[in-house]
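Question (not urgent): is this output format expected?
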Amino acid sequence: MSSMTLYVEKNSIIHNMDPLTKMIYVFVSIAATYIVPVHEFVLLVAAYSLLLLVIGKVFRKILPIIAISIILIISIIIVQGMFHPENETVLFSIGAITFYQEGLSYAALLTMRVINMLSAFGVLILTTKPDEMIERLIKKGMSPKIGYVFLSVLQIIPQMRATMGKITDAQRSRGMETEGNLLVRMKAFFPLIGPVVLNSLNDTRERAIALEMRGFNTKGKKTFLNESREYPYRKVMQLLLIAALIAAIVWRILL
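Got this back:
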């Protein structure tokens, strides 16, 4: 993985797909789980997103991201299981705490939506080069300035992680304790986070100057470093995704 992106270099069918098709998939897969709020359907969509990660050979990379969301998932289960407005059927009790079937059923639906959302975005971010994705959007008519903002957002987490690693190593070489119990880590947090933020602001300023020197704001037709690639079955896949979204909408209207 590059230090400046979350993209994982692999040779897979998913990596070779059109970035715009993957963006459409993210939108359709997330929207469909809200349009069709049926447990079996949402589970199927989430399973399909996870399958795409397996095919793309990046399944292991999404696991830490899902693990981070465990706290959110647990809170959803507790809150919905106890306080959902439609709670009627008692499922089980732990002391004075009672969980209801209706609330836990809704919590399961929300949990599957969260996992699908993370997995769908993982398919896009982990298997698509950010510069290739932004370049495709710009060629479709998006403003280069908006493209630069999107690219910066995609790079900010890896960039800050790399900066944090460098500053941590530098502080360790000066004798600072950065590992140990919770108190030691808390003491080391503020001396580390300050330089990271300042470094990030300085990098942003240097980028802006570099872009200005390269004529980023100049008028006229833009040229691209990379030639346009042809993606097989691109239009067919996009039409199938749009058709799936329309089918979900029609199902909801007729329900």
